[in-house]
Every structure is written in C-alpha cells, then in structure tokens.
Amino acid sequence: MKVVLNLAKKEQKALFVIFGGTGDLAQRKLYPALFDLYKRGYLKKHFAVIGTARRPWSNGYYRDVVRSSIDGMVNSQSQIDEFASHFYYQSHNVNDVDHYETLRVLADKLDQDYGLEGNRLYYLAMSPSFFGTICEHLKSQGLTKTTGYNRVIIEKPFGHDYASAKKLNDEISKYFPEEATFRIDHYLGKEMIQNIMALRFGNSILSAIWNNKMISNIQVTLSESLGVEERGGYYDTAGALRDMVQNHILQIVALLVMDRPDSYCAKDVRKRKVETFKALKIYSPKEVAQNFVRGQYGAGKDMVAYREESMIAPDSMTETFVAGKLEVDNCDMAGVPIYIRTGKRLATKATRIDIVFKKDDDSLFGGQGLADNILTINVEPDTGIDFTLNTKKIGQEFATRQTNIGYRLTKEQVAKVPEAYERLILNALQGNSVNFTHWDELEYSWKFVDAIRNAWDQEDLPVDYFPNYACGTMGPQASDELLAKAGHHWIF
Ligand code: BG6
C-alpha cells in the first residue's frame, strides 16, 4: 500500500477560530491538544487562536482558562506564557451578523501580526443547530476570503438520524466543500484504531486469513464504567445507539472488514469504507428483534440508576447499552457475524476488538478440543495486541494448552502516543482527511442505525422493561444469549 501523504514534521501556520471556546470540550480536549502540538513543534510562532462564545470574557481571563486547562503539562512558566499569548477572546452571538464583522477584523489583524498566510481553521464545538448559520455568516461576512485555506472542523453529533444529518450536511456544504469539511470521530485518532490497517495490510500472515474461511466471528466492545455524568440532557435524547454505534463502532467495523485500499489516502480509504457500509445488511424490524439487544442500567453499589441521574426522566426508555450482530455482505467477510457491544456503567472501561478464528481439527490430539485462536487488539487501556495459540502441554503427554503471545506498548511508548485530538487537529491542519468521516460514510451509517431505532420505536415496551442490568456488570443477560444462539460467547 503506497503512502502518499507527506507527514514530515513542519511548522503549521494557521488561525484557529473556536466556536464554543468557553466550553467543556475546548477546555478538556482542544487546548491541551493545541499545547501538545506546540510542545512538539507543529505550532510555533505562526499561530493564533480566537475563542468565541456568548460570555463577555476578556483576553486575560480567557488566557487564564487556557492556562488552567493545560496545568500539569507545562515545563516552564515562560513556555506557558508564550503559548497563552497566542489566545484572543471575542464575545460572539452566532446569529448576529455584525459580530462576524468584528471577528473578521480581528482575524485579519492576527493574520498580519502572526504571519498566518490566510490559513484558517474554524472549529465548531457547539450545538449542531448553529452549524449552518455559522458557516453561512463566515462566508457572507468575508472571513473565508483569504489567500490561504479555510477549513471547518465539525464535532459530533452530526444529526440524530439520516434526515437531520442530511439537512445539516446540505447547510454546511453550501459554504464549505467536502474536502474542506473535517467531521471528527475521535476514535479514528486513537493509536490502536489506526493500527488496524497496519496490522491487516502489513502482514501477509494476517491478510491471508482475514476472511470467512478462517474467521469465526469478530467482537467489538466499547465498554464504559462511567454513567452519563453531566450530559443527561443530551444523552437522554440520543442513547447508546446514536452516541456510540452510529459513529465510533461502525467506523471500527469498517476498518476491520473493508477490502485493502489502493493507497493510504483519504480518497482510497473512503472508497473501501463506503463499499463496506453499502454491504452492511439493513435489518427489518423482525431482524432487529433477533439481532439487537438494548439495556438500561439500574442502581449498583454507591451508584444510582440511570433514571435517577440528573436531567433524566424517571420513566426514560433511553438505552444506555446496545449489543448487536452485524452482517456484511462483501466477498471475504460474508457470513462472519460481527458482534458489537457498548454501554455505560459496565464492569470496566475498555475498548477492545477480538477476532476469533475457526478451530482446527483436534483429531490428532484425541479429540480433546482446541482453544480458540484469538487476535485481540487492546485499544485502551493496556494498549497492545494479544494472540492466542495452541501449543504442546509441557511434559510427556501429547496434548495442547492455550498460550498467549502478547505485545504491549511500553510506558515510554505510551507517553509518546499523541492524544486523539492532537493527531486529528494536526491532520486537519495538513489537509489530510483520511481519519475523518466523509458524508457518504455517514449517510449509510445513519440509514443502518435508523432501521434499528425505528424498529425499537415501534415496539411498545412496558416501562418496567428497564432497568435490565445492574451497574458494574457487562449488560443484560440477553447480550450473552445473542451470541449463545450461534454457539459463540463474548471473549471479554
Ligand atoms: C463520546 C460519547 O463520543 O465518546 C461519550 O459521546 C463517550 O458518551 C465517549 O463517553 C467515549 O470516548 P472514550 O475516548 O473515552 O472511549
């Protein structure tokens, strides 16, 4: 696979305009990511950040907020002072056209002062209901009339079903072409998720067995131990299916089952992913009932039930857990069940992928039964790979035992791994969209998810159907039964 991108380290020159600059995402993820880029030399003298939001903050106050968001990552006072001096605050009402004029004047000034060559990255870290308006005014008020590039980074959720996603996309694409639109899925910025393609297409021993002749089933688990925390308002309208399956899980599935792309560039990778999404079987309501399980957590030790969390209706029917069996009808993977599972308040926080291979003939060993060969990709925590093999039991007897070959990133390597947001922001600065979600992928993933959601909405479940799993477990029993029906079991 030819690598066509030149990702050589090089100082990036750009103005960041962050809509939602006072928000949680900006403070938890974006400012630390920018600081990491600064420490690693991707951002040096030629960058500036305008944070915008409604609150009337001063530059000084804003810089203090930025400073405290990177507390603990800093080597020296002069380093943090120099970094924070690139940040400017502009109080902004996204509906007020005049405010864009003020923003343009500031943007042009910073462009001159910092030598930014007209490169602009607009980061929309706020409610999607404003995306269309912001993009429209950025264009109409001349912010995008520069000699450099103008790109927009969009945070999730990108719609709540196909129709709303399409509407949103139509609004944005009137002002920013697809190649200038970077839709974030932060899982695509994770080291081990990016490792899937390297593993699959960099090892002939794996590519030769990555098919329905050799693979019994694939399991993708995104398990979280936390509950909904402060995000009840959003989560209760979304649920686990929209929050985790439509984006992160389906993107991982695409990387796991797509055919080999012609090159590692956005166009070729996307082509393969879209083919995979098109081959994903869309279920009828009856098939949804057979292949999908939903759950909602009840109380556990020192933990309240979902329905008792803040901003959640006491009779909420929103799912905090989903497990499902997917089928992809492409030649190599047709017939291989792909089991997916995600939930809040599960036993542990872990993201992992288990590829379970078909068992060999055990007649040579007196029909003792052989253990599964499993390739596990540990995304987080404990980043690494495990491969289980059958080897001879030590001693006189000719029998087998399961042996694990494990690879773990060392502490030093883990420290060097860029955080997902750092990696993705750098990709956007470099104009590299290979790790972003294209509209075509979204279109199919929403259609797949809508079929499940619609089937669930038609079911008239009694209110006491939930809760159906306790905090600290791995979800409802029906999730185990889903695999048991096919003679499988969750490896994790
Ligand atoms: C987000 C979801 O996209 O991913 C959250 O909205 C979830 O509900 C989060 O907690 C999980 O991300 P990570 O990187 O912590 O596994």
From TrEMBL:
The keyword Oxidoreductase applies. PROSITE patterns: G6P_DEHYDROGENASE. Pathway: Carbohydrate degradation; pentose phosphate pathway; D-ribulose 5-phosphate from D-glucose 6-phosphate (oxidative stage): step 1/3. Residues 17-195 form the Glucose-6-phosphate dehydrogenase NAD-binding domain. Its EC number is 1.1.1.49. Catalyzes the oxidation of glucose 6-phosphate to 6-phosphogluconolactone. It comes from the Bacteria. It comes from Ligilactobacillus murinus. This is Glucose-6-phosphate 1-dehydrogenase. It is an enzyme of class 1 (oxidoreductase). Keywords: Carbohydrate metabolism, Glucose metabolism, NADP, Oxidoreductase. Residues 197-490 form the Glucose-6-phosphate dehydrogenase C-terminal domain.
